[in-house]
Amino acid sequence: MITKDELNRLKQENLSELYKLLNGSQENREVLFVLENLGSLPNGFDGDVFVPFTRHPNDDIRFWAVKNIGKVADEGDLKLLNDAAQHDSDSMVRREAISSIGRMRSPKAKKILSSFLSDADPKVVLQAIRGLLVFKGDAEIQNKLLQLKDHPNETIQSVIRREFSKNEKSSSAEPHPVSPEFLRDVVVQGDVREVLKYVPDESLHLTFTSPPYYNARDYSIYVSYNAYLDFLEEVFNEVHRVTKEGRFLIVNTSPVIVPRVSRAHASKRYPIPFDLHARLVNIGWEFVDDIIWLKPESSVKNRNAGFLQHRKPLAYKPNAVTEYLMVYRKQTDQLLDWNMRQYDWDTVEESKIKGDYETSNVWKIDPTFDRVHSAVFPLELCNRVVKFYSYKGDLIFDPFGGSGTLGKAARNLNRHFFLTEQEPKYVERMKADLGKTNLFQGESARFLTLEEFAVERAKEKP
Smallest Cα–Cα separation from 324: which of 208, 229, 204? Predict the structure, then answer.
């Protein structure tokens, strides 16, 4: 069996021996080894040596034969590659044939590549797009590519949008790192839907919230589950509007049980994170990650009591020790690097995560209990989210402010906070912590009614 060193020597010093090796080898393993390890090919390499392997019964050998033909970059091979792209039985070989055609950057390839824009395999289409983008200055090619903006495949849509909207700027009047001053370190008492009407487009950098439970607590009563989801959709649609391009929304939810009305009836479990997800994506939030918040079993309600006694199948109910942090990004054609480049060097350096950090999507954090609020964010949970998904000086929002833990985390980590909360007793609870002097700004938080907030907004307008 030939080695990589021997193969490189033949490639550099004795091509005729290399051709003989390929032509004479009958063992699939050796052929595949040679084809995989050829690397870049010298000028004048005879690509015809690969042609017989494009008809080989082994899919991997055909793939590497097509890939190496592409390296030779001989326009005379366009027909061969086109045939492989059209008729090969293996999708990977088809895609590589299109890629090899595209890498030639030959004007003769435009017609071939264009013919694959309607292929049933989205990855073949994507390879054809990549090859044609070299010629997107050609009006005919540009027109064909733009027709794909409504393609059923979301990745194809995203590529076309990104390639043809690179020069479009964000609609925000403020520079990306900047937020409106009247929103900074403010708590507004009122219905979040009414409050957000006064918030300008693209004002917020991060939203982290835990919505009210569906009819499982005394502070959240909705006429139906659909009405509850409609309410959340309305809120997060407005949050989308006021979030800066490419920034994050993180929603902490879990399935919730509505207790049975009597022993003659069953309780009902609602899968809130899963039902809410589709609505968020519809709004324009792009799903990024799911993080599991894992709590100690001793801290949650025991659902095993009955099953522990009788052990009868069908009655098993596991203790619910997890909640979901569903991570979304405001849909954009900009990569994350674009968001990062909006900040100056000092801000980026000061915002870097120092020391150990959680590498998995399972966060083991003890819950927090409060005498006033029955569902309080642990400070550690807020600290992690704020550190991982924002920069110093950013504006962090919680539409259901509760006890104000997110505000504390934002303040401690040199971010600004903007919170809304409808319940007066929770606003009073926040005043105990957030009403203290803000060491970051040298000021205490401002607590406003909806009417006072509307006046502040009016002052801000030109």
Answer: 208
Task: State how far the alpha carbon of 132 is from the alpha carbons of 110, 115, 137, 188, in Å.
Answer: 7, 11, 10, 52
Q: Are strands 416-421 and 186-189 parallel, antiparallel or unpaired?
A: parallel
Q: What is the pTM of this model?
A: 0.77
Q: Print pLDDT tens along the chain (462 aa).
A: 788 899 889 888 889 988 888 887 668 888 899 999 999 998 889 999 999 999 999 999 999 999 999 999 999 999 999 999 999 999 999 999 999 999 999 999 999 999 999 999 999 999 999 999 999 899 999 999 999 988 999 889 888 988 887 544 555 567 999 999 999 999 999 999 999 999 999 999 999 999 988 765 555 568 888 999 999 999 999 999 999 999 999 999 998 877 666 666 667 888 999 999 999 999 999 999 999 999 988 888 888 878 888 998 988 888 889 999 999 999 888 889 999 999 999 999 999 999 999 999 999 999 876 555 555 789 999 999 999 999 999 999 999 998 899 999 999 999 999 999 999 989 988 888 787 655 445 567 899 999 999 999 988 865
Residue 253 phi/psi, 5° resolution?
Answer: -140, 175
Considering only the top CATH level, what class is 4-164? mainly alpha
In the chain, list all ranges with CATH 1.25.10.10.
Answer: 4-164
Tell me how far apart the terminal alpha carbons of the chain are, to the nearest angstrom.
Answer: 77
Report the CATH architecture of 181-460: 3-Layer(aba) Sandwich (3.40)
How many residues make up the chain in this entry?
462
